Each structure stands twice: as structure tokens, then as C-alpha cells.
Amino acid sequence: MNIAIIAAAGQGTRMGQRRAKQFLELAGTPIIIHTLQRFEQCPHIQETVVVLPAQDVAGFLAIAGKHGLRKLARVIPGGASRMESVWRGLQAIRPQTAEVIAVHDGVRPFVTPEEIERTVAAAEEHGAAVLCAPASDTIKEIQDGRVVRTLERARLGHALTPQCFRYALLRRAYEAALARGLEATDCSSLVEALGETVIVVEGSARNIKITRPEDIAFGEILLRQEAEARSQKPE
Hints:
By secondary structure, the chain is an alpha/beta fold. The chain has seven helices and eleven strands. Strand 4 (47-52), helix 2 (54-66) and strand 5 form a beta-alpha-beta unit. Helix 5 packs across helix 6 (187-193). It is globular, with a radius of gyration of 18 Å.
């Protein structure tokens, strides 16, 4: 069974809102629901585990029920960091049935089911895979306010999610990191620290992480574009 852990326990302080950003709305629907609907549409995922702020756990099942999220298996409280929240999600999964784990940011509602499918398939074959978008800007390495060097753009990518791993590998990576007191902003770096190979799956820059108020406006535009594209498809 392939299971998605949706990391949505952050408070989103950069939004300047009282409500956590994952519950802000795009086209009248909470961002987290848009995200979960993408996984509902992907046949390569059989269950989802959602990690939320502790105060939002109790009421979320009612919200999810209104939107027909049939794959939602568990809703659990997150920790003080993204890493701790994903670890709690991983602990909530039954090892006997888990195959590939897809870890995804709850505020990336524009991932496509096809991108999820390709990343899961790469992890099934190779053990670990990360969705990445090619770097479109020139990247500078900076130290003390000065450019140290210009990095070769062709060798760089923007790490997106989902990041997908065989269950045993991801569990081992987290246990090793916790034992060493390591902290990381994504799962791939923990697997890389084990010396394991992580395969890159090319994704779209449209798979944005909604972080700031202007991202909401851009998200509304993306939703309209998707709706227009669907309306133009032949029956």
C-alpha cells in the first residue's frame, strides 16, 4: 500500500493571518482540501495521513467528510518542526502494509496526479525519488554579503514535493537523523545522509508552495487556468 503523509502542521505566520495558511481558501475551498483532492485523483496512492496543528485535528474529519475524501485514513497532531511532524506521521503508519511513502506539503495544492504517479513509480523502482523543477534563474552562492561563486544552473533544481521513499528506507533515515540530532527541511536530505541514491523526477514550476499573501492571488489564477483547460477538452 502506498501512503501519502500530508505535512500541514505549520502556522503560516508569513501570511499575516489569524488562520493557518492551509485553511485559507482558494475559490471558496481550503488549500489543504485542494491538496488532498490531487491525491484522491491519483490511483498510485491508497491512503493519506494528514498532520495538522493540534487544535485543528478534532474538527478536520468533519471538513474532510464534506469534500468526500475517501482515502483519508488518519489525522494526527504535528510537532514543533516539519521534521518532527513527518516523523509523527510515519509513526502512525502500519509497517506491515506500507510500501512507498509520499511526503507532500499541505500547501502545495497544484501538484498533478500524474506528477505524484511518476514520483511514486520512481521510488517503487529505485527506493527514493524527489520531484524537482529545473532552476530557471542564475543562482549565486553568497557569504557575508558577497558573491562567492556562480553555480552551474544546468546542475541545479528546485526541490518540490511529493518526495517518495520505500517505507523501510524513510524510517531508517529518520531514526538515524534523530539519533544524531540532525534537523532537515526535507526528507530527501535525511536519505542522502545515509549515502542512498535519490532519483530526480522532473516536475512543473506551477507546483507552488503557498507561503505569502501574493501566492493566494497567483493560486486563484492557476485554478482559473485549470478550469479553462478542462472546459476546452473534448467530451
